[in-house]
TrEMBL record, chain A:
Organism: Streptomyces brevispora
GO CC, any one term: cytosol
InterPro entries: Aromatic_CoA_ox/epox, Ferritin-like, Ferritin-like_SF, PaaA_PaaC, PaaC
Any one Pfam family match given in the protein's UniProt record, by short name: PaaA_PaaC
Record-level GO BP terms: phenylacetate catabolic process
TM stretches of this protein: none
Name of the protein this chain belongs to: Ring-1,2-phenylacetyl-CoA epoxidase subunit PaaC
PANTHER family membership: 1,2-PHENYLACETYL-COA EPOXIDASE, SUBUNIT C, PHENYLACETIC ACID DEGRADATION PROTEIN PAA
UniProtKB/TrEMBL annotation, chain B:
Superkingdom of source: Bacteria
Gene Ontology terms, MF aspect: phenylacetyl-CoA 1,2-epoxidase activity
SUPFAM superfamilies per record: Ferritin-like
Gene Ontology cellular component annotations, sorted alphabetically: cytosol
Protein name: Ring-1,2-phenylacetyl-CoA epoxidase subunit PaaA
Gene Ontology biological process terms, A to Z: phenylacetate catabolic process
Signal peptide: none
Length: 233, 334
């Protein structure tokens, strides 16, 4: 249960954030790309939440403290650079995670084998944009560096072991760090020097301790469903 | 259209004379009459080109602005299944916009130029997207009625005389029909749901019915572009013909839905074999076209803001691409 909710909530919440871009993207091709990634993640969330129970009950009727997603995915979109930095950090993590899971024979092996193909595409998209923004104009470089720095402290939580998720967490973190460092350097960006977790955030999302914007996000997400108890849609 | 292309090439090198233009125009008219497709490199009258650019740009802009009223409900969709359907639909609309801008570009214009005209209010988009989505049921009403009206309009465009437009429409109509069925199914679920859901569905249909009928444009006796478009086989049926066809399709569908259409004058006319329906409020239609509808300002402002706030991202992509084509000694590789 802990494991399915952790993986499922990550996908559900990030999907929601990406879908907030619909109609606001900087270029039409990104309307398509961001919606496409949101849709892939929502598909993963539905499979995972269905393993844990009723997908809609879990998405719409849990309170904030019962969500198990990492704090990284609930961070507001900010500007396009923030969205890309969040996506880079998460998709490199999720790609490593699903690669390991798909190679094993645990309960997530089948799902991970399907999802890893989608996530490889998400990762490529995030890496390409990190390069374009980091090594684009002085303004885009500054914005990308700012985003990379601002979200860095939410990355430590990605490697807090989750009960029931059978992966080598240390390998996952080392591979993540090597990949992210390589991309940031190619993008002429500086890898943030600070700790990957503020003391108070470590493991917090996985225990249902979230950041303030998250409550408002799920209030919007759940409002209609909660206004019509028992209705089907 | 190979013959016209050939003669175009010949005449272009020989220099243009009235006689040559006359021959080209005659060949063009003959091709249109023979139901041949006009292709980008073929000769075409300037007014035909301008008319297509106007219509295709307006069509593309409608796909892009049309994302907004539906995207308004993505974050509040009441089930994960409905949410996935809605995201996919809005994504398709962005894709349709891209096809249509590409098709318009075959006529010698550019996407940037067309978007600038949209943002400056110099080119239009469909009047329907100036209405607000106030409840979840509006998402269903848009699927059923707005997409339904769009399909009624667009299916004949699959036989439009301009090849790139006709081919774009074949692809778009396939996806639109899918959206329309999904919208209908959404309304059916609401109509058969709780009393509050049923009421929500009826309210949405009440608000979207008349604006959907206005999507077919002004009545035939007031439509400025119609006659010429029909001669050129860009358009195949008049506004009023298509509107009538749409009403006749919707009436039985509304019955299956268990919802009523908000028109006391709507009844079957045995003699005509079609439905009679009430008068459309053309004053409202004109006001919306003039920019005074409920959401005109909001829709354009959001579109302009997305474009302006995205400028630094597009600049970054361009600067990065530029660097990739330059080798260390400073010479471009491409």
């Amino acid at each position: 249960m802990t494991a399915t909710l952790a993986l499922g909530d990550d996908a559900l919440v990030l999907s929601h954030r990406l879908a907030e871009w619909a109609g606001h993207a900087p270029v039409l091709e990104e309307e398509v790309a961001l919606a496409n990634i949101a849709l892939d993640l929502l598909g993963q969330a539905r499979l995972l939440l269905s393993l844990a129970g009723d997908e809609d009950e879990l998405a719409y009727l849990r309170e904030e403290r019962a969500f198990r997603n990492v704090q990284l995915v609930e961070q507001p979109n900010g500007d396009f650079a923030h969205t890309i930095a969040r996506q880079l950090y998460f998709s490199v993590y999720q790609h490593g995670l699903y690669e390991q899971l798909s190679a094993g024979d645990g309960e997530f092996a089948g799902l991970a084998a399907k999802a890893v193909k989608e996530v490889a595409y998400h990762r490529d998209h995030a890496e390409q944009w990190t390069l374009r923004l980091g090594d684009g104009t002085p303004e885009s470089h500054d914005r990308m560096q700012h985003a990379v720095d601002a979200l860095w402290r939410f990355t430590g939580e990605l490697f807090q072991p989750v009960e029931g998720v059978e992966v080598e967490w240390k390998t996952l973190r080392n591979d993540w760090l090597a990949s992210v460092t390589a991309v940031l350097e190619r993008a002429t960006l500086t890898v943030p020097a600070g700790p990957q977790s503020g003391g108070w955030t470590a493991g917090a999302g996985r225990q249902g301790i979230h950041t303030e914007p998250f409550g408002r996000m799920i209030a919007e997400m759940q409002h209609l469903h909660r206004s019509h108890p028992g209705a089907s849609w | 259209m190979a013959a016209v292309t050939a003669s175009h090439t010949t005449q272009a090198t020989a220099g243009s004379t009235d006689g040559a233009d006359g021959a080209l125009a005659a060949a063009f008219d003959a091709a249109v009459a023979a139901e041949e497709r006009i292709e980008p490199r073929d000769w075409m009258p300037d007014a035909y080109r301008a008319s297509l650019v106007r219509q295709m740009a307006q069509h593309a802009h409608s796909e892009i602005i049309g994302m907004q009223p539906e995207a308004n409900w993505i974050t509040r969709a009441p089930s994960l299944r409905r949410k996935a359907i809605l995201i996919a639909k809005v994504q398709d609309e962005a894709g349709h916009g891209l096809y249509l801008y590409s098709a318009a570009e075959t006529l010698g214009t550019g996407r940037e130029e067309l978007l600038d005209k949209l943002h400056a209010g110099r080119q239009r988009y469909s009047s329907i997207f100036n209405y607000p989505t106030l409840t979840w049921a509006d998402v269903g009403a848009i699927g059923w009625l707005v997409d339904g009206a769009a399909i009624t309009n667009q299916v004949p465009l699959c036989r439009c005389s301009y090849g790139p437009y006709a081919r774009a429409m074949v692809r778009i109509c396939k996806e639109e029909s899918f959206h329309q069925r999904q919208g209908y199914e959404l309304l059916l679920a609401l109509s058969n749901g709780t009393a509050a859901q049923h009421e929500m569905a009826q309210d949405a249909v009440n608000r979207w019915w008349w604006p959907s009928l206005m999507m077919f444009g002004p009545p035939d006796d007031a439509s400025s572009h119609s006659a010429q478009s029909m001669t050129w086989k860009i358009k195949r049926h008049s506004n009023d013909e298509l509107r009538q066809r749409f009403v006749d399709i919707c009436v039985p569908q509304a019955e299956v839905l268990g919802l009523t259409l908000p028109d006391p004058d709507l009844r079957w006319n045995e003699e005509r074999g079609q439905h009679d329906f009430g008068a459309i409020d053309w004053t409202e239609f004109q006001e919306v076209l003039k920019g005074n509808g409920p959401c005109n300002e909001q829709r354009l402002t959001q579109r302009r803001r997305a474009h302006e706030e995205g400028a630094w991202v597009r600049d970054a992509a361009a600067a990065y691409a530029q660097k990739q084509t330059v080798v260390p000694n400073g010479e471009a590789t491409a």
